[in-house]
Structures are given as C-alpha cells and as structure tokens.
Amino acid sequence: MGRVAYARIAPNEDLVQGVEKLCLAEGFRNAFVRGALGSLVDACMGTIDGKYLQIQGPAVEIVSLAGEVRQGDDGSLRAALTGVVADPEGNVYGGPFVAGLNPICMTFEVTLEEWLPAK
C-alpha cells in the first residue's frame, strides 16, 4: 500500500468521475476506496440483468461505498464503485454506480488509499 488521500468532491460533480479525478490529482495510478460520506442528487445503479435503476432524490444518501480505481493499458483511470443507497422515503438499493449519472448533492468526502501492485 502507498499514500492515503482525504478529499472532497464538489456539488453536481459525478461520483465515479470525481473519484477518478481525485486519483489523477494525487498521482494515484491504482487505489482503493477506504471510506466515504455524503449524498447524491439522484442515483443510477446497474442491475444484475444489465439494465439501470434510477433512484430519485433529492438527497439520496450513500449508506456504504466500496470500490477501486485502476489504470488501463492506455494510461487512463477507471473507477469501479459499488454501494448501497437510501432514497428520501427510506427504500434501500444496492449495486454498481453508473459513471456520469450520480451527481453529488452537497459535498462528498472520500478516503482513497493508493495501491502499489507488485512488479
């Protein structure tokens, strides 16, 4: 393991793309999500049958978040984030977050740990 970064993702920025952007800013080529706290305007998660589930807000709370960021052969970073969310009525949903469709509501705090794979 390498360095640890604590960072904030701003309102209306996408969750998945925001984590990728944070890794770029920190110089992390590979990282794990170690902790997170915040909410989304709306959420969009993948389902087991390959479809999408839209969870309407406002303020869809993230109950838990796990994931990793990996550098591809072309040097680009790609985050794969999975979590559990609760809508304003308290209904709970889980699955992978769809990149580009999960805007942060107010702010989002995340802890990233750099992963240094063995060579």
Automatic annotation (TrEMBL):
InterPro entries: PPC_dom. The keyword rRNA processing does not apply. Residues 1-119 form the PPC domain. Keywords: DNA-binding. GO terms for molecular function: DNA binding. Gene3D superfamilies: Hypothetical protein, similar to alpha- acetolactate decarboxylase, domain 2. This is DNA-binding protein.
